[in-house]
Specification:
heterodimer; A: 677 residues; alpha+beta; Phenylalanyl-tRNA Synthetase, Chain B, domain 3; Phenylalanyl-tRNA Synthetase, Chain B, domain 1; seven-stranded mixed beta sheet; six-stranded mixed beta sheet; 32 strands; elongated; B: 346 residues; BirA Bifunctional Protein, domain 2; two-stranded antiparallel ribbon
Chain lengths: 677, 346
């Protein structure tokens, strides 16, 4: 909110420190503040405005010049004067025994939504321009001057924080059959009712909206905006001044619904104390009398069924000390709270305090603790090392695995990207998307990586990237929505700008993934053909294989990319390694070459060799694969090193030969397979 | 044989040997010359062998001449061997000389995202202070994100967190109000989630991705990372909050003279609430870096603990902002651009 330095000065007899110093003090002890600019008026006066970022819990009392002046008074120990022009010598209407109640009826139909309604009335006011000083203050804080009556109400609001409204008495429709008696009803709008605001906008009303009405129609949207009907104009002679307190939630909802935010609506939705209404009424009345003349008609009407009382807070100084971690004396508590306008009582060690009526943020001892701490200054609280027993932090295995995977991928040449969690398509839709291509939560990571590759091709010939992050999927019907939709995934992509054989890219990608999985200590992983299902066809049409650990599928691999379930992978990862003693006896190595059909999988051949080789076949190592034409058929040639070794003795040539024969026989049992001798 | 012809033999032997040595290019050639002249049946050896059959006067003259020649040849050979040795060494040296200034063989490695790096550094520091790292969901319920944290519906305080709401699929079982879904606007819901399941005393940090519905610019994005901290004990207090945060930032920025400052702040789930500013030792400016405070008794009550027994502090900081500061990154949107020109610098 914008504040005028001159206005703040008006509450103090002593000269205030420079605006920069005020801003500094407020920043450290109350609210972030800065000096905005200096304004010079035609009259020669100059003013300086400050922008003060009032914290929401102090919006109750500090959206006002008086509120900030009270802070300054407490922080700098300066005496605060009552607002100038207080009701020192009000002029009353000469008509004796004139009762306002005879001329005005106030009927609050919704006491829950309207907690207090003060109505005052004046006669013989003279509408005209505001005096220069008032106009200058309004201009300084960015407001427009309208006329002296409206300006006075506005001024009183900016000073006290209590919104006010003024109606033209004569334009208000009267009570039926009683022409001279006007009536103000605080009620819910009727369905179909409309109102034209002071600035000529039309609003359709409904029964959730509270209005200030006369006997016929709405005069104002309560707490938000006045209507045209009872507008103050140059001919206005008699006025009704409203100083009311409206329930915050209703104001907030109405303001949202009709799309209108005003200074008044902001004050009410932040909630203000009903105690403010009277002070503001006093101020506005005095100001109007000062600048527009007129006399007060009778006693004001005050509808105030439930009197507001500040909370009483009980505590001991030790409570505050324990909480803040510094020693706080009863004396410090007493003087600090007094400065802030608290009512303070003490019985022995116990304090019983209640905050000033305009402050609604003080209800528990922690609130008092905050006041003590900030007024002393957080800078005067020395930092301490956190105490108490230090428990050893259990290692976070998940995080360790994630870091290991990241480092393995980086070592393999992949860089890590972070993409937005939003996508143009997905399963979980955003109610209020921020952009057309971000209407959904992402259901996979790979789409994002593909986009990244396309963009990076402008600068790089090859793009190798990965991402670890959450995707959002819809859980099955009937399942509890909230818990089941998030999954941690890992996706990687190796893309080249220039064409490259698909197989080469595939084996590179596969190698990267295998390195990750095997480095996590997982050995029983394998790549299975993608199942021929609708789900696979629609969701991952490019998939070349399912990635499996044991019988569980953890994801899939495409020609140049993969996406796997990170949680499953980590769950299956065991870094428990076990040492296996190596044999003392030499190994015998034999080579074998086999011709098979191009569609035969290497895993089938490997299985056949291993089954036939038995325990003494320690390892099988594929070292050559090529395809060629042979007698008109396409054939695939595979060459393996077979390593035979025993833990008990040196294998003789004869024994190795016998094993080779067994393996060759097993391979030749298959049709289409041919061992080349 | 005459004395004269003997001397001629010496002359020609000397000439032959010295000539050959002059020609010799390697050790083998020298060894061959040695064998031919001084070896078992070398020319000079043979002369020396024949001395015993000569008359004594002649033996004396021929003998001394032969021995002198032998000495001369040996010396020349030694000289020659050294010369060749030197030559070979120089040649070897020449062949193995390496230009060490040539760049080594390039190993293509990938780069980790700067936020991953910051996350590692921050969690390592907090772990050393006894804080355990835990995680929570990114899609949250209204209850955990707001209500349980003393941010009721229709309260202006909610305006501090502009929220992305999720559409509820029609075929899901109907949900009560409490579990209306949104994208978490902060990591604070995990204060509740963790305390519901764990008894104090406790110390945790919760890093994670958060979302706010707001316009983007160089310092704001609708997606960002936050790090939440929570410590609850019987005496955990504001001075300790200050101590923990000060220590953390000093370690993170490796700056012993870093200063921190608390200013009044407001978050409904702490009381008092503070804004945390830091000033690096070479800097003149205070930078707003975190929000913190003492956990509000209503939060302690929300997880069914007794606020008269347990108290503590909580803090939250933007990891993007910290990464920007630490690595001098000028635009927050770079983090989520997938641009390798950016990522390859880390």
């Amino acid at each position: 909110m914008i504040f005028s330095y001159n206005w703040l000065q008006s509450f103090f007899s002593k000269k205030l420190p420079k605006p920069e110093e005020i801003a500094e003090v407020l920043t450290i002890y109350s609210f972030e503040a800065k000096v905005l600019k200096e304004t010079r008026f035609l009259s020669g006066t100059k003013d300086i405005v400050l922008d003060i970022d009032i914290l929401p819990n102090r919006a109750h009392d500090c959206y006002s010049h008086l509120g900030i002046a009270r802070e300054i008074s407490a922080l700098l120990s300066l005496n605060l004067n009552p607002p100038i022009g207080g009701l020192n010598s009000p002029k009353r209407s000469k008509t004796k025994n004139f009762k306002l109640k005879d001329r005005l009826e106030i009927d609050v139909k919704e006491p829950d939504l309207c907690r207090r309604y003060i109505a005052g009335a004046m006669t013989n006011v003279k509408v005209g321009p505001s005096p220069g000083w008032l106009e200058e203050r309004l201009i300084a804080v960015g407001q427009k001057s309208v006329n002296n009556i409206v300006d006075a109400a506005n001024y009183a609001m900016l000073e006290t924080g209590q919104p006010l409204h003024v109606f033209d008495f004569d334009k208000v429709s009267g009570v039926q059959n009683q022409k001279s008696k006007k009536c103000i009803v605080v009620r819910r709008a009727k369905k179909g009712e409309k109102i034209t605001s002071l600035d000529n906008n039309n609003f359709a009303l409904d029964t959730d909206i509270l209005v200030i009405a006369d006997s016929r129609e709405p005069l104002a949207i309560a707490g938000i905006k006045g209507g045209k009907k009872a507008e103050i104009d140059s001919k206005t002679k008699n006025i009704i001044i409203e100083s009311a307190n409206f329930e915050p939630t209703n104001i907030r909802l109405t303001s949202r619904k009709i799309g209108l935010v005003t200074g008044s609506s902001i004050s009410f939705e932040n909630e203000i104390s009903p105690a403010l209404a009277k002070a503001a009424m006093d101020r506005a009345t005095a100001l109007i009398q000062e600048i527009a003349g007129g006399e007060i008609i009778g006693e004001r009407i005050d509808f105030y069924p439930k009197k507001f009382k500040s909370a009483r807070i009980f505590f001991k100084p030790d409570d505050i000390s324990k909480f803040l971690g510094i020693s706080v004396s009863g004396k410090e508590i007493f003087s600090t709270l007094k400065k802030l306008g608290f009512e303070v009582k003490k019985s022995k060690e116990n304090f019983i305090v209640s905050g000033p009526a305009e402050r609604l943020d003080l209800s528990i001892k922690e609130d008092v603790g905050e006041e003590i701490a900030r007024i002393r200054g957080y800078g005067k609280i020395p930092p301490k090392a956190p105490g108490g027993l230090l428990f050893p932090v259990p290692p976070n295995d998940k995080r360790r695995c994630e870091n290991m995977i990241k480092n393995l991928l980086a070592a393999a040449g992949l860089s890590e990207v972070y993409n937005y969690s939003f996508a143009k398509a997905g399963e979980i839709e955003i109610e209020n998307p921020i952009a057309a291509d971000k209407k959904f939560l992402r259901a996979n990571l790979l789409d994002g990586l593909k986009d990244n590759a396309g963009q990076n091709f402008r600068y790089f010939d090859e793009v190798k990237i990965f991402e670890m992050g959450k995707v959002f999927r819809r859980s099955g019907a009937g399942a509890k929505f909230g818990d089941m939709i998030e999954k941690n995934k890992l996706a990687g992509l190796t893309a080249y700008k220039a064409p490259k054989p698909a197989k080469e890219i595939f084996y590179e990608t596969k190698g990267i993934l295998e390195n990750v999985i095997s480095s996590l200590g997982i050995s029983d992983y394998w790549f299975d053909d993608s199942p021929d299902t609708e789900e696979v066809k629609t969701e991952r049409p490019m998939a070349m294989a399912e990635v499996k650990i044991g019988n569980e599928s953890i994801g899939y691999i495409n020609k140049d990319s993969f996406e796997i379930d990170l949680d499953k992978l980590i769950l299956l990862a065991s870094e428990e390694r076990e040492f296996r003693p190596f044999s003392k006896y030499p190994a015998v190595i034999r080579d074998i070459a086999i011709l098979v059909s191009p569609k035969t999988k290497i895993s089938e051949v490997l299985d056949a060799i291993q089954n036939a080789g038995g325990e003494l076949l320690m390892d099988v190592d594929l070292f050559d694969v090529y395809e060629r034409e042979e007698t008109g058929r396409a054939r695939k040639s595979l060459a393996f090193h077979l390593i035979f070794q025993s833990n008990e003795k040196t294998l003789s040539d004869k024994e190795a030969n016998a094993l080779m024969e067994k393996i060759i026989k097993a391979l030749e049992d298959k049709r289409e397979w041919e061992v080349r001798r | 044989m005459s004395k004269k012809s003997q001397m001629d033999i010496f002359q020609s032997l000397r000439k032959d040997v010295f000539g050959a040595l002059e020609e010799a290019a390697d050790f083998d050639a020298i060894l061959k010359i040695e064998a031919e002249s001084l070896g078992k049946s070398g020319r000079l050896t043979n002369i020396l062998k024949s001395l015993k059959d000569m008359p004594s006067a002649e033996r004396l003259v021929i003998g001394s001449t032969a021995n002198a020649l032998k000495k001369e040849i040996e010396e020349k050979m030694k000289e020659k061997k050294e010369e060749i040795g030197k030559k070979i060494k120089t040649e070897a040296d020449k062949a193995e000389w390496v230009d060490v200034s040539i760049p080594g063989k390039k190993i293509k490695r990938g780069h980790l995202h700067p936020i991953s790096r910051i996350l590692d550094e921050t969690s390592a520091i907090f772990e050393s202070m006894g804080f355990e790292m835990v995680e929570g969901p990114e899609a949250e319920t209204e209850y955990y994100n707001f209500d349980a944290l003393a941010i009721p519906k229709n309260h202006p305080a909610r305006d501090m967190w502009d929220t992305f709401w999720l559409k509820e699929p029609k075929d899901q079982i109907s949900l009560n109000d409490r579990s209306k879904l949104l994208l978490r606007t902060h990591t604070s819901p995990n204060q509740i989630r963790y305390m519901e399941k764990h008894q104090p005393p406790l110390r945790i940090i919760v890093p994670g991705r958060c979302f706010r519905y707001e316009a983007t610019d160089a310092t704001h994005d609708f997606q960002f990372y936050q790090l939440e901290g929570l410590m609850i004990g019987e005496k955990t207090n504001l001075a300790e909050l200050k101590g923990a945060i000060e220590l953390f930032f000093k370690l993170l920025f490796k700056d012993k003279n870093l200063q921190i400052r608390f200013r009044p702040g407001y978050f409904p789930f702490v009381e008092p609430g503070v804004e945390v500013d830091i000033k690096l030792s070479q800097s003149l400016e205070w930078l707003e870096i975190a929000g913190a405070g003492m956990v509000h008794p209503s939060v302690i009550k929300a997880v069914k603990l007794n606020p008269n027994q347990w108290q503590g502090f909580a803090f939250g900081m933007g990891l993007d902002r910290i990464a920007m500061l630490k690595y001098k990154i000028n635009d927050i949107r770079l983090f989520y651009s997938g641009d390798l020109r950016f990522i390859n610098q880390f």
